[in-house]
Amino acid sequence: MKTGTLNSNLWCIIMPIFIFIVLFYLYTYGPGPVSSSNTQILKYDGVTTSLTSQDPAPQYHTKSETMKTPVNELVFDCPVDTEDGKEDNIALYGKPVYESMRKVLFISMPKCGTRSFVWIVDKIIASRHCGARVNVDYMLAGTSEYAIKTLGEKLRMAEDGTVIHGHYRYVSTDNLPENPVYLSMLRDPLSRFESHFYFMRHGDDDISKEQLILKLGKASALPNETLDDCVEHKRIECSSPQNIRQNPYITSFCGHAPQCNSDPDYALKQAKKNVDKFLVIGITEDYDLTMAVFEKLLPSTFKGARQAYTETKEESMAKSKTSHKKPPSPNTYSILRERLRYDYEFYNYVKDRFHRLAERMGVGRCQTVKHDD
User: Fold this and answer.
1) Backbone torsions φ then ψ of 146, nearest 5 degrees
2) What pTM was estimated for this model as a whole?
């Protein structure tokens, strides 16, 4: 009995000494604190990373076990128009919507980054387990009656938080149920025109050229022709002001009135007026900024949009990049730029207004850049 008591007492004495020796060894010979001289702090959206030259991989410190992709700083051109934007004060444009998830009508202009947007929406829906994405067939050339009927049916059938996207023209929400929110994105007109021209003849990793060539009209440029050839031979898509492929922005955002197709001055004026009916129209060249603004204005639907874009953009861009493009000659560029002048005026108006909104919201920072035009 005394022997057992003695052994128990010895164990109580030896165990703390053993633990002390182990801790002392780890403290003395272990990795120890990282020296500030060789430490680089990497900041992620919601994640702080400490990386040293000895580390084989970054050490992540976050509540979540999942590392987030780095998000770059948002920098954009300072607005050219320095006025306070009186039109923004009396319009829906730029007014945050904080209520429960609204149904969204997203007007997709061809070759303006729609497929990247689709990937983003799908990723957001998968993460929140509600809402849906609905595609609408091509309707840019359709009648107003057909557009109202089609969009109305889609809206009535859709659950809250649904994004209804497609190539269709602006339709007044007075003619639609459910009080949807309008969004869209625009790209530099000549860049969009060039991309669409070669896409229809060469496809990309997602859509084969064999499918697309069948859709070319009889008066269109031939499948093996370049933009220079198209202009030189006066093909309809490169020469006719009435062709829907030229100045599609003003016709699409003008709406379905007959003058939208026949009178470009009317179409431009009406398209600018209709911008007031949109929550915002983003810019493809400022994609990450656009997603950040979408998040701010409609958080119930687009929370996480910028992060989703960062995580999917490489794969999305690789799949949707046109397989072959030949830059136009300076002469062709000048001719097409002049023929796209109405879309350029609308694009610059939308871009300047978008940058003014981002600046006012404190999303990113602007910098003054000199442009050729």
Assistant:
1) -65, -40
2) 0.76
What would the pLDDT profile of 196-224 be if each residue is shown by its tens digit? Answer: 888 888 887 677 777 777 777 776 778 88
Residues near 153 by beta carbon (within 8 Å), at least 6 away in sequence: none
Q: Tell me the two tokens of residue 290.
A: 């656009």
Name beta bridge partners: 52.
39
Would you state the structure tokens that stand for residue 8, as one six-digit string?
């128990």
Instruction: Tell me if 275 sits within 8 A of 253, measured CB to CB.
Output: yes
Closest by Cα among 249, 258, 248, 243 to 278: 249
State pLDDT tens for residues 227-239.
Answer: 999 999 988 888 8
Q: Which domains does the chain have, with CATH numbers?
A: 38-68 (no CATH), 75-367 (3.40.50.300)
Residue 352 CB neighbour total at 10 angstroms: 17
Q: What's the CA gap between 91 and 350, in Å, rounded? A: 14
Contact criterion met (CB below 8 Å) for 287 and 312: no
